[in-house]
Amino acid sequence: MLNVRDLGVAFGVVQPLSGVSFSVSQGETLGIVGESGSGKSLTAMSVMGLLPLIGGRITDGSIEFDGADITALPERAYRKLRGGKIGLITQNPMTSLDPLKKIGPQVDDVAKLHLGLSNADARARTIDILGTLRIPEPALICDRYPHQMSGGMKQRIVIAMALAADPDLLIADEPTTALDVTVQAQIIRLLDDLVKERNLALVLITHDMSVVAQTCDKIVVMYAGRAVEQGPVEEIFDRPRHPYTQALIACIPRGLDDATRLTGIAGTVPTVLNYPKGCPFHPRCPKAEAICATDAPDFSVVGESAAACHFAEVAHAEPA
Ligand code: SF4
Ligand code: MG
């Protein structure tokens, strides 16, 4: 459904993203994971054709969607895809919802615009979709304004809008970050069900490895604008090869005991203006050696996964 090859993105002379490749098929969830500033959202914006609107451009590689090359699609054509065949779910529902407009018309408009439905048909469809998203009393909800809804309900409305035009691909950028833990779990389960029921392809962008473990079939771990490790989710969790992935997994809280909860990875994420030479992770890497500061590691494939670390192949010669 979506095939991204060797993607590189620049803003003027600054190159925040390079060499990113992944694919996702129908019925499959791909997780893009990393700390903020790793290039996850930029990757999503590239796929959505939003880069030109923020002053960026694709300098390398290609993006293929449903068999067609969309790398250099003009904005006019992209506007049909976005919200149409590609649905977007953002972190903060209030950036996607119009606070001055009732919920029904907001969802109706998507189906009217992209599917050419009449008012009545669009509303029937909206009520149907709200129902499948387990929103109680959908007909009544259509008459409410966003501010009358809870955070979790607002996020369901955003999901309804993303589904209204019957997309093949959903891109969810930190869809649960603004929500409390219980609601997060409900939304994640809902997305998981939608992928299966509607045979959707889902790209789930998150900094949360426990969300990835629950929902994704495969993952791409990003650091400093590069993919540093990728592969099937079980393989990555069982045998993480890259020290950054190992650190992300070690940060997943286990139980409620504060003593076992790690406080994150030491050091800070480099910004695009100071991406380190050599391996971008070397200033923070507990396993760095001299070569890491000078030579950028290539991807090495071990089994079904691949990691960009000089020592990826020996990472599991000894117990992690
Ligand atoms: Fe760490 Fe070196 Fe591997 Fe980079 S290449 S992740 S610095 S061991
Ligand atoms: Mg982001």
From TrEMBL:
ABC transporter domain: residues covered: 2-249
Membrane topology, as annotated: Peripheral membrane protein
Gene Ontology CC annotation, any one: plasma membrane
Protein localization: Cell inner membrane
Stretch forming the signal peptide: none
SMART domains referenced in this protein's UniProt entry, alphabetically: AAA
Main location group: membrane
Chain segments annotated as coiled-coil in the UniProt record: none
Gene3D superfamilies tied to this protein: P-loop containing nucleotide triphosphate hydrolases (3.40.50.300)
Family statement: Belongs to the ABC transporter superfamily.
The protein's name: Peptide/nickel transport system ATP-binding protein/oligopeptide transport system ATP-binding protein
Native source species: Marivita hallyeonensis
